[in-house]
Amino acid sequence: MNTKKLTQMALLTAISMIVFLIEAQIPLPFAVPGVKLGVANVITLYAIWTLGRREAGAILLIRVILGNLVAGSVMAMAFSLAGGLLCWVIMCLLKPIMKRNQIWIMSILGALGHNAGQLLVAAFVTGTASIAWYAPVLVIAGVITGFFTGQCAQILLNHMDKLKTKG
Fold it and tell me: What per-residue string of b and e applies to 97-111 under the rule 16 or more CB within 10 Å gives b?
């Protein structure tokens, strides 16, 4: 791995950590446990498209582990890891068949995967599958938040492209 790519990964990891930690401190106007915008996923999407799948996965893992060590708990880390990794796998599988202007679709499906991963951990922790009643709420939240983060990632990629052509 070259120095430029490693530096980019370090910067994106730091940015995603900052976004993750800030977002963890912002109370949402609705009381739905486990639901947040997931703005740090914008960085994961950006990294998948610019650096590669493996690099994006490394950034995601470091963010989840360090972010939860700083602002979360071991249990929160289990939920974040399961959701984040399933989201990453889905987006990596979709990337070869998606056009760049379809990032929002990747993001929505990734968000739904994230929510499925969290539900699986919740079912494991509680020892019951009855937690699945919560799935419709998470599907709605996943579509909304996934669309939002996908649009943000698209704007970021487009803006970075403009900067590259001017520089």
Answer: ebeeeebbebbbbbb
